[in-house]
Amino acid sequence: MSATPILNDKRVFGRGTVQIVVWSVPRPVPPSAHRFKYRLVYIRDGRRVLGYDNERGKGDHRH
What we know:
It is a single chain. This protein is mostly beta strands. The chain is flat and about 35 Å long. The chain has one domain. 0% of the residues lie in helices and 65% in strands. Strands 1-2-3-4-5 form a five-stranded antiparallel sheet, with no helix packed on it. The chain has strands at residues 4-13, 16-24, 36-44, 47-55, 59-62. It starts with a strand and ends with a strand. The relative contact order is 0.23.
């Protein structure tokens, strides 16, 4: 599936880093109903503290 990049931003936030990456996809990534593939993550000391994404088979979920 081809994806078109929409946003890729990484910023220092507090004592960590926040990164958000969003792509537009031609069809929803099952079981999501929207046409976006995304990743949002907060990293501190090189470790993921919190993350959200949508993955084929898992849909929108939190880490």
